[in-house]
Amino acid sequence: MLARSPLVGPLVALLVAVVVFAVITDTFLRPTNLSLILQQSVVIGILAVAQTIVILTAGIDLSIGAVAVLGTIVLAKVGGEHGPLVAIVAAAAVLAVVGLVNGALVAWVHLPPFIVTLGVFTAMYAATQLYAGSQVYPVAKGPLTWLGTKLSFGGLTITTGVLAMLLLYLLAWYVLSHTAAGRHLYAVGGAPEAARLTGIRSGRVLVITYLVAGVVAVVAAWAALGRIPNADPNAYQNANLETITAVVIGGTSLFGGRGSVLGTLVGTLIVAVLRNGLTQAGVDNLYQNIATGALVIAAVALDQVSRRRVQT
Is the pLDDT of residue 2 over 70? Predict the structure, then answer.
């Protein structure tokens, strides 16, 4: 059933998590808390879109969190000196180059994505600390914090960042489901030899995929400044784990070629609900990390079982 309807499992898991936390806490279902969950899911949710398209190619991006943090520093520093428009263009250019390097090393040098992005993660973390001088840069209210603008719908308050995240998911779903580019991406991840024999230029698909992931990280960096108007080089240290968790428990296979961004959206909400619910229940942050790690291991194990059943 999970193989035929991959969204069913994540939706049931999300429903169970909501019911459990609604029972064990008095504050979980309050409109203010539900609004907070949506706002807390924005940055990881946007980065999870980038992680999804990379994993669909049978790759993985362990640098995506560090790349986004570098983006926040570029936005804050360049924005303070040259204005927000120049800052956004500069951040997009820098992060696109990082994505291009990732893609080129994976596609043309044929290095394993795990090794490439782990190395880039280490380099980006150090480069961000050097560029920031290990300082936090406050960002004045304006265009760079626009994605934190609050909008009220009845008793529910969301931000423009939430809307941007949902629009990004809609765009990614359309491209992956209704365009040749999306079909090529699935083919490269699911059946690379067949993709090659049908004339699909796998190397170009991989390079573009990692480049797009870098550009998506700019949107996440912008949203991060909207949520907290400080560019901190030590922020989002768990972003890689949380994006991979969101993707995998959303039904996308780590082996590539199978999954959807809609599942990733549900997976993102599961991660946000788990974090928020455990916080509401008074669970220490370290135990929350243990729970998140256990969740991703369980999701990968389930993916393995589902994959074997499909093959048999």
Answer: no
What confidence tens digit (pLDDT) does each residue in 223-238 have?
A: 999 999 999 999 988 8
- Backbone φ and ψ for 295, nearest 5 degrees, come out as -65, -45
pLDDT band at 290, cuts 50/70/90? confident
pTM across the whole model: 0.91
Say how far apart CA 93 and CA 137 lie, in whole Å: 20
Phi/psi zone of residue 25: left (φ > 0), alpha (ψ -120 to 50 degrees), beta?
A: beta
Instruction: Say if strands 156-159 and 150-153 run parallel, antiparallel, or are unpaired.
Output: antiparallel
Quote the percentage of the chain above a pLDDT of 90: 65
